[in-house]
TrEMBL record:
Belongs to the TVP38/TMEM64 family. It holds the Pfam family VTT_dom. The keyword Cell membrane applies. Keywords: Cell membrane, Membrane, Transmembrane, Transmembrane helix. The lineage of its organism: Bacteria, Bacillati, Actinomycetota, Actinomycetes, Pseudonocardiales. Coiled coil: none annotated. This is TVP38/TMEM64 family membrane protein. Residues 62-179 form the VTT domain.
Length: 245
């Protein structure tokens, strides 16, 4: 009874994965100026149309930077930040849910491998801090991280909270500091990226230290071999003395 659903999920997962890869490499990523012209035709509902486009398109592994740049250009700093971070949350939730729906059963047998289990445990135990730390690091791609968290044992609420918290600084920096007209990267934005990466690395280091400490604390204390031998011999010697009396 379980063979058909599993095969169906495998087909769906492969189709979605292939579609995401094809979309990421073939779909032209619009420039902020092109997005401005496109949104101008939407009229008063520009913010809603932009929110929907941002939320859906970035479920595929398409960079969010151009959308954050366009958010500031089209909507201004305040509304642009609100729309961008809302779309980020929606996109992250969609990617997570999609991966959990069609991907988790397919890789469940591989979760017992030592390396995969170690990553799974650290992400799951790290919770909000683990996800937020990874989101802070600019080099970690947005959509694939959501897929991984959906496949692994990360719970949805910590994942979503970590995604919002970790993505917020970078989103604000791009909306406010990014050169939306040219698509360039100002030095101030590069400095922010460096600071965010450092903060993310420190968060991951803290999780690693906490996990190592918990592992040592959970291990039972052991005696050295000589003392252990003495302790084992004491009951036997006591019984021998009782029998002789």
């Amino acid at each position: 009874m379980d063979v058909v659903p599993r095969r169906l999920k495998m087909v769906i997962a492969l189709v979605l994965l292939a579609g995401a890869v094809v979309a990421a490499f073939t779909l032209p990523v619009p420039s902020p100026a092109e997005l401005r012209n496109w949104a101008a035709g939407a009229g008063p509902v520009t913010a809603l149309v932009f929110l929907a486009a941002y939320s859906v398109l970035t479920v595929a592994p398409i960079p969010r930077t151009v959308f954050n740049l366009a958010a500031g250009l089209l909507l201004g700093d305040v509304l642009g930040i609100v729309v961008a971070i809302t779309a980020t949350a929606v996109s992250g939730a969609l990617g997570f849910g999609l991966a959990r729906l069609v991907g988790r059963d397919l890789v469940s047998r591989h979760l017992e491998r030592k390396v995969v289990r170690a990553v799974d445990e650290r992400l799951a135990d790290g919770g909000v801090l683990a996800v937020a730390s990874l989101r802070l690091i600019p080099l970690v791609p947005f959509a694939p991280l959501g897929y991984c968290c959906g496949i692994l044992s990360v719970r949805f609420r910590p994942y979503l909270a970590g995604t919002v918290l970790g993505s917020l600084p970078g989103t604000v920096a791009v909306v406010v500091l990014g050169d939306a007209l040219t698509g360039g990267t100002p030095p101030a934005l590069l400095a922010c990226y460096g600071a965010f990466a450092l903060a993310g690395a420190l968060g991951l280091a803290r999780i690693a230290r906490g996990t190592a400490y918990a592992g040592r604390a959970g291990q039972p204390a052991t005696l050295d071999p000589v003392r252990e031998e003495i302790v084992r011999a004491e009951p036997t010697q006591h019984l021998r003395r009782v029998s002789e009396e």
